[in-house]
Amino acid sequence: MPHSDIDELLPPPPPWRVFSEAPGGGADDDLPATPEDHRARTYRPDRNVVELVNAALYLRRPILVTGKPGVGKSTLARSIAYELDLGPLLHWPVNSRSTLAEGLYRYDAIGRLQEANLRDAPGTAEDDRTADIGRYVRLGPLGTALLPRSKPRVLLIDELDKGDLDLPNDLLDVFEEGSYTVPELARLPDEQHEVEVFTDDHGPRTTIRRGRVSCDAFPIVVITNNGERRFPPAFLRRCVRVDIQPHDNRALAQIVRTQLGDEAAAAAEPVIERFMAKRSRDDIATDQLLNAVYFAMSGALGEAGGQAAAEGADAHTRERLLDALLRGINSMDPA
User: Fold this and answer.
1) CATH of the domain at 71
2) How far apart are the C-alpha atoms of 326 and 46, rounded to whole Å?
3) 206: which strand partners?
4) DSSP assignment, residue 7?
5) For this UniProt entry, which segments traverse the membrane (predicted)?
6) Co-location of 157 and 272 in the same domain
């Protein structure tokens, strides 16, 4: 028989899985709250990370962040945007097909050609025949970050080591010059020297003059790296390198306390010990620990928060579920 009362059976979602339509209270109050907003507000980097990030801000240099999966590399960028009130994060997830041009802008030549054919059709009003090339240009995350502003934007270039071998070197000129050209706009006649284009953050269209974009404040660029390959020395020396180490027991307890409160932190000690033991053999992300602690606190495991086993699961099931939630990222063993 179908169950129609799932909203009554399930506990509230964990804070990092709340998709609210209420304002997020972050850098832009018009944006809805997201799990990323929550992570940014509760992120607690160690002192060494803070000092290196501050050095990069002073020097206006990109931050190359290395660390194991789940230590908070991407969250560091979101935390910087939140703490410094620099607006929504610009995010460029890199894959094996990513190119510098994709990060800077996208030009929809096919869409423009199709509309040109429609404009030339018989019966089209003269006012409708005027082409607006800016409607077919959208700046990418990097291109948007380099727009001239009094305050820098925060750009996350995520997992650069997954990209093409030439991509780090391609980024060097842009990082050094703080500018780029959109050739399709630079070729326009003088009477079209100003063109309004779309941006990556879907805000109002912005004006580009003679196809050239130059930043006023160099963006805060956070580049994450999972260590899958080495970068060229010329690229490395232009970045401030930050290596985020896995959290120790004390830091993990503080993370649980920040995310779930004092009661959860007190009940989480055995789960943290199990997490540390498993992490010594395989990579496990911190959010897996949070999932396990929250699951236990919810009563589903019948282990924490004074829940009786009869309300949740028997001891064997509890152990099996905890093992599954704390399964190593590289583990091939069945859950």
Assistant:
1) 3.40.50.300
2) 24
3) 197
4) H
5) none
6) no
Residues 229, 262 within the same domain: no
107 plus 216 within the same structural domain: yes
The total number of residues written for the chain in this structure: 335
Q: Is residue 206 exposed (0-12), middle (13-18) or buried (19+ Cβ within 10 Å)? A: middle
Pair (264, 231) in one structural domain? no
Let me know if 323 is exposed, middle or buried by CB neighbors in 10 A (0-12, 13-18, 19+).
middle
Kindly report the pTM of this predicted structure: 0.82
Give 85 or 129, the one with higher predicted confidence.
85
Q: Taking the mean position of all CA atoms in its chain, how far away is CA 313?
A: 36
Inform me whether the pLDDT recorded for 9 exceeds 80. Answer: no
pLDDT in tens, 106-160: 998 887 787 777 666 555 554 444 468 889 999 999 999 999 999 999 999 999 9
Give the containing element (helix H, strand E) for 35: helix 35-42
**Do 197 and 314 have their domain in common?**
no
**Comparing C-alpha atoms, which of 137, 207, 149 is closest to residue 178?**
149
**Residue 108 and residue 29 share a domain:** yes
Task: Give yes or no for a contact between 154 and 200, defined as CB atoms under 8 angstroms apart.
Answer: no
Give the orientation angle of helix 249-260 with respect to helix 35-42, to 10 degrees: 130
Number of domains in the chain: 2
Query: How many CA atoms are closer than 13 Å to the CA of 42, on its beta-carbon side?
Result: 20
Instruction: Work out whether the CA dihedral 75, 78, 82, 83 comes out positive or negative.
Output: positive
- Amino acid present at 275: F
Strand bridging mode 154-158 / 90-93: parallel
Beta strand pairing call for 137-139 and 105-107: antiparallel
The answer to whether residue 317 sits within a structural domain is yes
- Whether residues 148 and 273 fall in one domain: no
Range of the domain at 76: 15-243
In terms of Cα–Cα distance, which of 321, 327, 278, 330 is closest to 298?
Answer: 321
The two three-digit tokens of residue 230, written as one number: 């080495």
Tokens 């991407």, residue?
Answer: 74
161-220 pLDDT, tens per residue?
999 999 999 999 999 999 999 999 999 998 889 999 999 988 889 999 999 999 999 999
